[in-house]
Amino acid sequence: MCILQVYVQCHDKFFEVSADEVENAELMVEDIVSRVLLDLFNGGTVDDVAIHFSPTLYMGLQRCSIQVRAECSCQCFTRLPGTKESMELAIEASMSSLLRELFGSVSVENVALQPASQAAVDQSTRYSYIDRCTCYS
């Protein structure tokens, strides 16, 4: 398993989601991330989505930041080449395309895939999930 962390900045005159309904916006983003994971990795788990809406306008634009933490199986990447870089680029492209529908102008600032922590040890086989992750080719 690999841990996926994504940080996104959004700004536009109008968002399709309201700053007054952060929980609903987070659920919509969770759905988007789930679709991306299904498409690129045949599934995955979204652990956390946090959206912070700026209370003030900047040059007449609304702003928000989105942080996502998820898990996916890197060895199930559906595209070639199966390198860490191509995985991160595919995630960035897919997420920005879908998020644009809700937030207008989207800038994916960071996409990071890392092997799951060695703390997650499968006791029955006595090795960590990191041994089975092929994020780094």
Give the SSE layout.
Layout: E1 2-12, H1 22-41, E2 45-53, E3 62-72, H2 84-103, E4 105-115, E5 121-122, E6 127-128
Antiparallel strand pairs: 1-3, 1-4, 2-3, 5-6
Helix pairs in contact: 1-2
Task: Explain what you see.
There is one protein chain. The chain is an alpha+beta fold and 137 residues long. The protein has a single domain (2-117, 127-132), classed as ACT domain (Alpha-Beta Plaits, 2-Layer Sandwich), CATH 3.30.70.260. The protein has helices at 22-41, 84-103, and strands at 2-12, 45-53, 62-72, 105-115, 121-122, 127-128. The protein is elongated. Mean pLDDT is 85; it is low at 118-137.
Tag the structure with descriptive keywords:
137 residues; disordered C terminus; elongated; four-stranded antiparallel sheet; 2 helices; Alpha-Beta Plaits; alpha+beta; two-stranded antiparallel ribbon; 6 strands
Q: Count of DSSP E strands? A: 6
Strand arrangement, major sheet: 2-3-1-4
CATH class: Alpha Beta
Question: Low-confidence parts, pLDDT < 50 over ≥5 residues?
Answer: 118-137
Query: Please, how many domains?
Result: 1
Could you give a short description of this structure?
By secondary structure, the protein is of the alpha+beta class. The protein has helices at residues 22-41, 84-103, and strands spanning 2-12, 45-53, 62-72, 105-115, 121-122, 127-128.
